[in-house]
Amino acid sequence: MTETIGRTASLTEEPQVEHLLTLTNIDFGKEGKIKRMYLPRYESLIDYSRAPAGVQFEPAIQILSEPAKDITIEFKLKEGEPFKFRQVNKKVVCLSVDDYRPLSGVSCEPLSDTHCKLALPKAQIMSRKVLALYIPCERTDEVQPSDKEKVEGGLYFALVKRSQQSEEDIEGEDPGAAEPSTIKILRIKKGRVVYDLFKPQSSALDNTYELEPAFRASEGTSTQFKLRLTLKHQGPGWYKFKSDDHSKEAKVFGHNPEERPAQLRSTKLQSSSNVCEIKWCQETGRSQCKVGGDAELCYCQHGWATSFNLQAVLLTPHSLRELEKCLALGDFQKIGKILEEVRVVGEIDPTVIQPPVCTIGADGKEVCTPPPDCWPTDGKR
């Protein structure tokens, strides 16, 4: 034992760091015949046989309560591929998505050219609603990286800080075969939602954390997929997405920002209300890139991470009958009250990572992704 001021401490005191997750075998998808660094594939985390096609999913973890320790996460690229992590001064580069600059206290230690350990202090985790990070990669082959690779080639990762409202334990039905463009909600464990998007072994996080679906939305892209509840009915009740009063859309609870994101064009519910169709259209901000003719950091060099919330609720026969009566009478005020009183059993938190359009390259010069060909400058589609 060793004496310290005011207390006695053991030399083998428990470390104040918790290793949260290791992502291995990270590969990159092809565009044409060439693997591109803006198409990472997290083979140990995401079940791509069940993932909606055409969506660039990234890892995201929801913080359900304040962590007791700092956390670490390891990223390991697939061996034998022509990619490595970018390093400066013997440290792997790790930048905030907001401004593509390092964050105080956040470090990324190289364990090899293709393996790094990200260290996140608790204070930084709790300092913002959504903490989104970018770890750039570099090519080691003779292929010239495209401008898009120079701007957003590498890995993205998000932490979403939002407390949990439910402690429900609900089993799921047999999810069956994968459905096109659909993420299935398999069960709810102590209020934590489990998705078929993630491989079973990757979901073994403690009650402080939860894996959430996140996707990258580059300038001028439109992303669409469905969320389906596959929960077993408990007695005479049905699990549905909470709707927005009498509309045919799921109710959206803003988190970051606190209102419904403008890019979220649709959360349309199918007739059974256990399927929600998400449509996200990432507008272009390129017309705002030059401020007064100045080429300093501006809108285009600032990314953004957005998170919003959908709720799964238990709808009883009584509440369903009341809703039908109110619809027949056109009593929309009472409809809203009934919907507010239904029991929330789970919360779904999709997160969107929006990379910047431009950045400063390794040579100190500005580099920008090519503007989209089919997206009007006013951002409408």
Strand content: 35-45%
Counting DSSP E segments of at least 2 residues, the number of strands comes to: 29
Determine the fraction of residues in helical runs and give it as a percent range. under 10%
Poorly predicted regions = 1-11, 290-299, 374-381
Shape: globular
Per DSSP, the total helix count is 4
Could you give a short account of the major beta sheet? 7 strands, mixed
User: Strand pairing plus helix content: what structural class?
Assistant: mainly beta
N-C termini distance: 68 Å
Rounded radius of gyration (Å): 22 Å
Summarize model confidence as the mean pLDDT.
84
Topology:
Elements: E1 2-4, E2 7-9, E3 17-31, E4 34-42, E5 57-58, E6 60-63, E7 70-77, E8 83-85, E9 87-88, E10 91-92, E11 95-96, E12 107-112, E13 115-120, H1 122-125, E14 130-139, H2 147-152, E15 154-161, E16 182-189, E17 192-195, E18 209-211, E19 214-216, E20 222-229, E21 238-241, E22 253-256, E23 264-269, E24 275-281, E25 304-315, H3 317-329, H4 332-341, E26 343-348, E27 351-354, E28 358-360, E29 366-368
Parallel strand pairs: 3-7, 6-15, 16-20, 19-27
Antiparallel strand pairs: 1-2, 3-4, 5-19, 6-18, 7-13, 8-14, 9-10, 11-14, 12-13, 14-15, 16-17, 20-24, 21-25, 22-25, 23-24, 25-26, 25-27, 28-29
Helix pairs in contact: 3-4
